């Protein structure tokens, strides 16, 4: 009888801490980038007609809306706002900017975005996207982040120079987002290999980019009971949205989008 009681208690205890797969949620986060001296050039305005969409330094606050495979990320970039809407079913991404009094944007497929990141249309040979093999060590240390008890993990991998990297990540074992959510969309400013393999949702980490820039990422609020209106994922009609191919300019640097704001 005692043995049966102990087993039942263990099963009940395990059910209390069962991980949720969430298909509707709102998550707020912040990303702080500090560049080494001379590395963080501001966006170029030139003759007043051209804007270079480029990530600089400082803090960016973002809010993620996720519902049944649709993702929307709203970010305050300091000089303006940025929205990214991802449809996992059609595999299309729409990026919207509101800056210098103009509302504009571009849309692309996953294949087009990958080509841009690889620089295939620049006429020069570029290194393909680096995806190393990762190994994760789970530790017993915990701390509270955004009201959740989070666990510590170390992600190990080798960089392009075959040097071993140990990346500390704090994650919540309480939940993961459901089918259609892609970690790379959320981590555009702070990419870390292996985050999608964590046994939970990444909540905090600090990393250093190859150019020496330091990136601090932290989730600040989690709402797993959110009720999101489907209209949240609609493209606003007051934005001038064009194909990504029309936004690229010959000779542009990898990862830059140029937009004309005066006609």
Secondary-structure topology with pairs:
Blueprint: H1 2-16, E1 20-22, E2 24-34, E3 50-53, E4 58-67, E5 70-76, E6 80-87, E7 92-99, E8 102-109, H2 110-118, E9 135-145, E10 148-158, E11 164-172, E12 175-177, H3 183-186, E13 201-208, E14 214-223, E15 240-243, H4 244-247, E16 257-260
Parallel strand pairs: 1-12, 8-15
Antiparallel strand pairs: 2-4, 2-14, 3-16, 4-5, 5-6, 6-7, 7-8, 9-10, 10-11, 11-13, 13-14
Description:
The protein is mainly β and 263 residues long. It has one domain (22-38, 45-260): outer membrane lipoprotein receptor (LolB), chain A, CATH 2.50.20. It is built from 4 helices and 16 strands. The strands form 3 sheets. A 12-stranded mixed β-sheet has the order 9-10-11-13-14-2-4-5-6-7-8-15. Strands 1-12 form a two-stranded parallel sheet. A hairpin with a 2-residue loop joins strand 4 and strand 5 (70-76). The protein starts with a helix and ends with a strand.
What is this entry, summarized?
This protein is 12% helix and 45% strand. By secondary structure, it is mainly beta.
Core attributes:
263 residues; mainly beta; outer membrane lipoprotein receptor (LolB), chain A; 12-stranded mixed sheet; two-stranded parallel ribbon; 4 helices; 12% helix; disordered N terminus; disordered C terminus
| Helix-strand string | HEEEEEEEEHEEEEHEEEHE
Helical percentage: 10-25%
Distance linking N and C termini: 81 Å
The CATH topology assignment is outer membrane lipoprotein receptor (LolB), chain A
Strand content: over 45%
Largest sheet, in brief, is:
12 strands, mixed
Counted up, domains total 1
CATH architecture tag = Clam
**Spans of at least 5 consecutive residues with low confidence:** 1-15, 40-55, 120-127, 251-255, 259-263
